[in-house]
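Lecture 7 notes. Example A: sequence first, then its structure tokens.
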Amino acid sequence: MKVRRILMFHMEDICYNSVNEFANLLAQSFNKMGIEVGFVDASQSEDIVADEYIKQIQQGFDAAIAFNARGEEKVFFEGKNIFESLNVPFFNWVLDHPGEKLKFINDTIKNYHIICLDRDHVEYVKKYFPNIAGVYFIPIGGQKVQTSKNARTLNLSGGEPDKGNIEGFLWEDFSKRKYDVIFTGGCFDRDVIAEDIRNLPKPLPDISINLIECMLDDRRISTEVALRKVLNDMNIMADAELFKFYMQKICSATFYIRAYIREEIIRYLALSDIRLDLFGGGWDKLGDLGNITYHGQVPYNESLKLCLDSKISLNVMPLFRNGLHDRIPTAMLCGSAVMTDSSAYIEEIFDTKNNKEILLYDAACPWLIADKLTEALSHEDELYEISLRGMKKATEKLSWDERAKEIIDIIDKSL
């Protein structure tokens, strides 16, 4: 292993402070590997940030990693970019579709790399940003949470699990968890998003509306494929640069789609008898939530504790058609069974045919989710086994420790 020290960044508090939590969790995993991590707080004033950069340069570092970088790589000393001058690779871990982050993607410095959460995003970057030094697929890791040491051991060859001490929590603990089902995520005002779309310059409002209709009609289609279809149907010719421009400008449309699907699912569950506990901002705007208990907004690290006390964690994928959202491995590592809509990557890494590791629903049929939840909760022993298998898979493949190993391997090859 060539890497000895890595530079990372703290940002202002956004998205329930999840970005800073990701940075801290990744740094902890690096530390376990014997790798030192230095931080620059990019939310501070320019003078403070400059001083922090100087201190980090003096200590030296082998690579830099930023989540959703917004110019952290554009640091110059005596007219030269410091990362190029030091011959240090800079990794931008993009947490959304990279097409929506066009102005923040830098393909002009030599050692600029991008990490994506979706394999389709990787292909997009390779196609439209050929000067990027490297593009990689690494989903966000899950946080491993310590629980009690006495647990039933999962017999992966089939049959009933035996008593033992492997997976980290008791059947009795699972059966007494406080929440049947939780969902952690906010509700976004679609009227505000719609107004943003209407205010776009022509023909972007029409493109956005058609894209929304296309992706709500086909809930497995990727954003890029959907945009190409919309442009073709509208007889709009777009070369590579214009297509990149459209991808950046339709972010309000994709945000609207995500908000619509999430709200639609919650509204259907509000009409059911499911005991759902809802955490996140904005849901009170929907009015009567039926049997749903609304708790308001919680910071990212608090959501981990909620997973520890829930039997099922409900997830809604954010248009990642070939990727993974961090809610899934985090819930699994907390011993919560996960129910989610699918993606090509989910179907690849999990046993989805027999519901052994994860529970799936079809986002195109949100009215069926309540029945699926009711069925799962009515067989609690089987649900516990699913949670154990999910925990085992997440521990082996999807934790921050595993993601850190993948990144170090990539960095070593780039040095």
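Example B, a different protein, same format:
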Amino acid sequence: MCIRYMSGTTCLNLTQTHEIIKLLRDIVDQLEKDIIIVTETNLPKQENLSYFGKNDEAHWVYNFPLPPLVINTFLFEDASALTKWSMKMPPAQIGNAYLNFIASHDGIGMRPAEGVLTDKEIKKMLQRLKKNGSQFSMRKLSNGEEKVYEANISLFDALKFTDSDKKGKFDLKRFIAAHCIILAIEGIPAFYFNSLFATKNDEKAFASSGIKRNLNRYKWDYSSLISLLNEKDSIEYKSYDAFKNLISIRKVQPAFHPNATQFTLNLDKNIFSVWRQSRDRKQSIFALTNVSSQTIKLNTNKINLIDDEQWFDLLSLNKKISPVQKIFFLTKIIKDYGTLPFAGMARMAFISQIILLDLKKLKLIDITELENFFNSLNLINYEISKDHEKVLNKKLKKKIFLEKYGHIRPSTYDINSLN
């Protein structure tokens, strides 16, 4: 929700505004549904964070300083300001999270950069963005002067050229690396649809409408997009494929839980780096992003790699490590986050079933209540039966059914089974 302004007023961040969000939060909490309140407040840091309240307002808050900070970092190959800002960001409480993004259907908001970047740094960034094809939307100050409110440009074009890479040799790598940062830091990463395909400025839409935001609102023709995604040499395919790979890696790492521990490291101005640790402290990830167009050598003694632990490059897992190392790594993940948790939950389920059966014997519950309870559970055998019926009625393709359930072996718990 974008709720900075109370209806009928021109005032920002009124106490009444926060009370409305608290009321909505109370209602949502009573509904016991998976409903998330997200506030969209394009404001400087403290005002933006105020919408978490005391864990009684928004669940998630848009992390508005990220777009200008990350863009500035890559345009000038210097992570100093981003690192300093990240070090000062308070961790969100459990149940709250930052919504991390660097592009949206609007422009690149400049207000959140105030107080984080100097006026000189902001001016320099706007000059570079103008060279890269940006238009600018303005806001009026109380003294009547105008100031840039947002830069209107697609993210890919914003990062295409830098003072150190004037020919755009590393444009796609720079673009993907910028997203690696929001994939690594505390919170939940969010991706603008057009960014998935490294979409450029829509100059035609801007020229015909005069609306600056249309530069970054290209409307894809579905068949044209699919055609480009089938061409492995197209930038759209390369970008989308990189996103799919990065997201698939991130989503299975417990250390990238939205509320997992984060420490920002100050290693080098050309490297943005964070250490993430899973909430159970079983997994640590050092996420290092080279923000420059040069190869940077880093002494690993600068980061806290525990000597008796096995360390791997997640992004090169299928390329650079030996089969033995890969087996060790994957076995450890299965053991820590598959076998042991499953064994614990299965044991609790068996004990719970025994308790319920005893309650029936004691006539504290009857057979109908017991069956209703078991039938209310959304178990895998119920899902299989339901989807199998869909296959028989030609409402679900057999291929999809097998992709979803093909790994499940019948008689898994029968020691005599040959499956």
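Note on Example B: Residues 323-361 form the longest helix (39 residues). The CA atoms of residues 159 and 385 lie 50 Å apart.
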